[in-house]
Structures are given as structure tokens and as C-alpha cells.
Specification:
261 residues, Nuclear Transport Factor 2, Chain: A, 4-stranded antiparallel beta sheet, 3-stranded antiparallel beta sheet, 9 strands, flat, DUF3027 domain-containing protein, DUF3027
């Protein structure tokens, strides 16, 4: 729901604009009088449609506004009420936009024992071997699984081209991509790092896995254009090198000389 902007009195049907008392009367028939404050204005929605606004005083609804829409037929002075609605204003606290459960899950959300099954028609996955473009019914899908098991193929389904593209874009845009601050300030890129373990398959020319135990990305997929200060060929500049220790000072005073000081 889009928050309501501050209402102002606008040009419109004078009869409807003057129906403030009627709008309040109808509003009080539906809500407690203690919840209704002063009229804050009216807006002409159409030639013969006007909405009146009243401050909402109900506890927990700070910044909300009562909205009463009135109308009349052409040539008639009789005012009728279309609707009574409670709307959020600019300063109102509203619930965030609803997101489906499966879209709310993020890496790290799963706990031991949790299951996250994929849908049968997940576009990121395709049968390990192709059966053409004809749609498969439930029985055919079960047969695919059984045949794959009998043939010892291991995986019934594998990543589809769409699934590969989605993963690649997600990794490229994530913390292991080339545009994060860590990579921008790195002395060199991951493609030239000795700690990079290259992938095989479709993504072999774009991504690898970091194997530097001292790096932030150890064990994670990184783009070739990523980088960090733990690059295998990183060298400290002369200014960054630690200062050599000072020469040892030898105390040559004898006990007698020390007492005479």
C-alpha cells in the first residue's frame, strides 16, 4: 500500500466539498468518536467525486488518515457515500511488502535438519539426459528418476542453462565479484593468484575457488576480476615494510663507574 500524501483542498464539486459534516457523520457510524480528529482537507477525485480526510487518533495508528469518499449524480443535490477507508500517511508505520517464503530464504538461513525442496518445474534444473521438448507428466518424471538410478547416473537433474546463468550473475554481483571495495583496492586480480583453484565446465573461464586460508574468501567462489590484499604475488612497498630493528646498545659501565655517576 502506497502511503497517502498530505491532503489539500482542491477545486471540485462545491456541494461535495461542503459535505464535511456528512462525511464525519458517516465515519462516526463505523468508528469510535475518540478515534476521529479534525478534518484535514478534501481532494476532488472526479467531477462529481470528492474524498474528505480526517486525522486518525486511534492508538497505534500515528500518521494514518480516515478517508471518506462522497459523490452525487449530475443534476442531483443528494450526496451519497462511496466508501470509508483508513489510509497510511507519509509518517505512518506500515508493514513491509509481502515476500513469498521461498524468496525470503538467504544463504545461511538453513539449520541442521532443515529441508528446502525444489519444485518439479524449477527452471534452474533439467533432466540429466534430454527427453525432447514435450512436457512430462508426473509418471514420466518418476520414470526418469528410476532410469537414472538404474543407469547409475547419480544425479537425476543437472543445472539448466538458465540455472547456470542465474548462479553466474549472482556470484558476479556478490561479495566475490569485481565491483566490491575489497577488489577495487586489491594489488592484483584473482585470475593471476596462485591460490585460485579453477573450476571446470561452463564457468571455468569466469570463476574459481579461493584456497588461501588467510584470505576473506577462502573456500568461496570468486570471479577472475575479484581480488584482495592476500594475492599470492602481493608485495609490500618500501614505505609499508617494517622498520629494521635498531642496533643493540652495549652497557660498558663497571659497577664502580656507575656508583660514581
Amino acid at each position: 500500500m502506497t502511503p497517502l500524501t498530505a491532503s489539500t483542498t482542491a477545486p471540485g464539486d462545491p456541494v461535495l466539498l461542503g459535505a464535511v459534516d456528512l462525511a464525519r457523520e458517516v465515519l462516526l457510524e463505523q468508528v469510535d468518536s475518540a478515534d476521529v480528529g479534525a478534518a484535514t482537507g478534501a481532494v476532488a477525485e472526479d467531477e462529481h467525486v470528492v474524498t474528505h480526510y480526517f486525522t486518525c487518533l486511534r492508538a497505534g495508528y500515528v500518521g494514518w488518515t480516515w478517508s471518506v469518499t462522497v459523490a452525487r449524480a449530475v443534476g442531483s443535490d443528494k450526496v451519497t457515500v462511496d466508501e470509508v477507508v483508513l489510509l497510511p500517511g507519509e509518517d505512518a508505520i506500515v508493514a513491509p511488502e509481502w515476500v513469498p517464503y521461498k524468496d525470503r530464504i538467504r544463504p545461511g538461513d538453513l539449520s541442521p535438519g532443515d529441508l528446502l525442496p525444489v519444485e518439479e518445474d524449477d527452471p534452474r534444473l533439467v533432466p540429466t539426459y534430454s527427453f525432447g521438448d514435450d512436457p512430462l507428466d508426473a509418471d514420466a518424471k518418476a520414470q526418469i528418476r528410476q532410469v537414472a538410478k538404474d543407469l547409475g547416473l547419480g544425479r537425476v537433474r543437472a543445472l539448466s542453462p538458465e540455472g547456470i546463468d542465474l548462479a553466474a550473475q549472482r556470484w558476479y554481483d556478490g561479495d566475490g565479484g569485481p565491483d566490491v571495495p575489497l577488489a577495487q583496492s586489491a594489488p592484483a586480480k584473482c585470475y593471476s593468484c596462485g591460490f585460485l583453484m579453477r573450476l571446470s565446465g561452463h564457468l571455468a573461464e569466469t570463476f574459481g575457488v579461493c584456497a588461501n586460508g588467510n584470505a576473506n574468501d577462502d573456500g568461496r567462489v570468486v570471479a577472475f576480476g575479484h581480488g584482495c590484499g592476500a594475492h599470492s604475488e602481493a608485495q609490500l612497498s618500501r614505505k609499508q615494510q617494517p622498520l629494521p630493528p635498531a642496533d643493540h646498545a652495549h652497557d660498558t659501565l663497571t659497577p664502580d663507574e656507575l656508583e660514581s655517576l
